[in-house]
Model the fold of this input.
Amino acid sequence: MDTRPTYPVSYDISPPERYNRWTVAFRIILAIPHLILVGSGSWQLFSWNAGHDDSGREGFNWLFNGGVLTGVAGIVVVIVWFAILFTRRYPAWAQEFVLMVYRWTQNVHAYMLLLAAPYPPFGKGEYPLQLEVRPDVEHKRLTVAFRAILIIPHAIVLLLLGIAQAFVTLFAWFAILFTGRYPVSLWDFSVGVARWNARVAAYMWLFVDEYPPFSLHAEPQARGGGMHAQPA
Done:
């Protein structure tokens, strides 16, 4: 019997019992304060722009994929990258801040994807998203050094899944406005993509060394190793 632990990042959320159609209809507008601060994604912080010099489009991408605090956290993670290469440890002061931004971003992401109904808290606070991260105590220098390269396969897959998820979310938006419910047949897919995204984000923010699974499921079996701290 396989007794290996599950992946050190868990993501789960239950469908809201009811939606407020007005807040769904104007969700993007309502979310603007959060989008300015943390954006609606997190692993995208480390993605690259293959495109052309289009400041308007870059501004739009920044608003919806990043934010002021996400940018600050990105700078902190660069410092952490060097710290881990020398000490194998994530500085405690940095981990607390980056974890806060990471959780906040995932809450906003779930809100924008219509997976959650309540308005997200600014910073720490209760939210329907059940997100747990078990950061490594000591890190492997080699995988940290080449993390941006190692993540490329996930970035490609998530790009494709993200396009599909965008269409699913648009369809769900109309469905909720007419029926008040998120179609059950599409719910698991969107949650699975969000879960995958959250695991890759945690890997890129250097919380965990274990390579993320290529899976939409809540309980993929862990591969590899790593020393884990208590839940954060």
About this structure: Residues 152-179 form the longest helix (28 residues). The chain has one domain: 17-127+134-204. Confidence is low (pLDDT under 50) at residues 42-53, 55-64, 222-232. The chain has ten helices and two strands.
